[in-house]
């Protein structure tokens, strides 16, 4: 049992969803309204907001200016000898992007957070319109 919980917690989707649910429950506790449908609508809206923010920041992290910041930090580490790769020269920006930024092992799942966040928004809208 303990091993399976640890294995589940290492899955990024489970970790992000659990944190988003806890955050939505805390917000629901702080802003409790009368009516079950209103509270469910608030819960799904909070859940969707957290998941869309997480998915958006993960997407933005791998493009444009953030990729440049990551490359600049890599070059600084290389100059100070903190990169233990034994490279004779630092990678170019294109090599760094291909080898490090686009590495599948370093990618965080973006689609899951955005899709579940959108479903949360749709559920919140449907529950709010039922009244």
Plain-language structure description:
With 131 residues, the chain is an all-alpha fold. The chain has a domain at 1-52 and 121-131. It is built from 6 helices and no strands. The chain has helices spanning 2-10, 12-30, 36-61, 64-79, 93-101, 111-130. Helix 2 (12-30) crosses helix 3 and helix 3 (36-61) runs antiparallel to helix 6 (111-130). The longest helix is centred in the middle third of the chain and has 26 residues, at 36-61. The model has no long low-confidence stretch (mean pLDDT 81). It comes from Hominifimenecus microfluidus. The chain crosses the membrane at residues 43-60, 110-130. This is DUF3899 domain-containing protein.
Tell me briefly what this model is:
The protein is mainly α and 131 residues long. 76% of the residues lie in helices and 0% in strands.
Strand content: under 5%
Global structural class? mainly alpha
The profile of the biggest β sheet is: none
- Give the N-terminus to C-terminus distance in angstroms: 42 Å
Average predicted confidence as pLDDT: 81
Q: List SSEs in N-to-C order.
A: HHHHHH
**Low-confidence parts:** none
Shape: elongated
Question: What is the tally of helical segments?
Answer: 6
Give me the count of strands.
0
